[in-house]
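[09:14] KT: can someone run the structure on this one? pasting the chain below
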Amino acid sequence: MQNRALVLIDKFKGSLTQAQINQVLARVLQSHNLEYKTFLMADGGDGSLATLASIGWNLQELRVTGPLDIEHDAKFAMSPDGKVVALELSELCGIKYLEGKRSPYQAHTKAIGEAIKEISDLDWSELWLLLGGSASNDGGLGILQGIGVEVSDSKGKPVKKGLSGLQQAAHIDSSALSEIAKLLRARKIVLVSDVSSPLLGRQGAIATFGKQKGLGTSGRIRGEAAMRRWRRLVVESTNRDESESPGAGAAGGVGFFALSFLGAEYQSGAATFLDLLEASKEIDSNSTVFTGEGRIDSSSLSGKCVLPILEIVKAKNAKAILVCGSYDESVVKRLEGEFPIAGVISLNDSGFSKSEQISRAEEILYDQVMKDLKLEWFRP
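[09:31] RB: done, structure tokens below
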């Protein structure tokens, strides 16, 4: 008897969606006459709405201001019973709206505040904020601006949006908590995130993700200083300090804002979707689980989908195969030392250039999986 293959792979950001990856793996597994099941895996980042839609959630639209002040229509999801509404940051104000041009000082999160305001009159009891694919480093400043709460500089003038505004922020209007309370009406807010890091320090929002959003060394130093001042302002306004709480560093500090001002509860994105998809129930000792994401590196150890899946694989005495665009060798070695990983398949091992791996990702992934797949992975 052969093991059944279970495919739980997140998107390869910028090249392949979860659905495309699933299609590639399905073709390969079918060609080897292997039993398999695919799941549209997500961890709270971009692609999460598609996963929710695949299990029966209803998609609706609203109009918001994107991260660079260009209005667009954005989708959000409601559970079949209408009691849970999900806002995906990447859909509202994510990096995809930068069109390849990073804008670390101007990009903002005003769309989230606008969306919360827009949906506040709907009859829901729980709001999920899906935080991934962020374009900004504004600590949630834009959310206040989107709701209509003024944040001013030392001279009493309203600050700009984005990190530029965060650097100037000196005062949050005293109406902030009451305005938010009117919108939320004591309803539950859940922070669903693929990042569990704190707001500040070496593992924080700026140090960990500032570079990929376009901040150079000096920019990250100034950004960290601005975020520290923002922390003080938020603590003064809310009388609570969530800067060390899991998820505070998510999405350029949006997690910190949600925990502080919205009273959100942190929930692992990967664990949330594993539960929704009922994938954990499918894994047993006769399973070979394909899991991975665009890049497996140190950030994969902080709450993204790979680690929670590997923990389940280990607990169920199953096998795991890592599938990714590229990987940090030291991280993979660490994972191999701790979990039952039988193999690694990477686009980066194909020999093609980075640009070709992106432009021809589906074709190259198919060829690489066909080349590297071993039938011994499916033996009990």
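[09:33] KT: thanks! The radius of gyration is 21 Å.
[09:34] RB: yep, looked fine to me
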